[in-house]
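Study this pair:
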Amino acid sequence: MLNLVLFGPPGAGKGTQSAKLIEQYGLIHLSTGDLLRAEISAGTTLGLEAKKLMDQGILVPDAVVIGMIDNKLNENKAAAGFIFDGFPRTVAQAAALDNLLAQHDVSIQQMIALEVEEEELTQRLLSRGKTSGRPDDQNEDLIRKRVQEYTEKTAPVADFYAQQGKFTGINGVGEIEGIYAQIVSIVEKN
């Protein structure tokens, strides 16, 4: 089973590259945002608990998100693997994910980080905001705040996987196919 974490700040190209990896390797895309919406829509116990918290403006606790990931793993036991997108965002989440995967006798093979400078990210997101309709991609101050939040809180997760020998950073600027070729090269080494 191939389990990857595709990592990088907002606008780094994770969505574009995830789609290509999913198609080539038959992976299941595990986006925590999508999982939350699906569990809420399905009216599951975890979904109802998450909705109650979200309605109060409270972040959904890691244990609830891990429970949702566990459900997805159980539903897809024959999967070729998973690509984690938007999770883990903290070292505590990374440790919890490792523990959960160990219960399923699998692990993360690699975290691949798309590294892009803040100015490039800002321009990409502002450009995306012109067509996406997403308000968070149209406000430069908000974009910079999201990138700063990533740098401060999420980037330490890279160190967690680096200590396990599972982290590779690549330049996320360039032609989509060239970046993808680098990612495939990393995946194929594992």
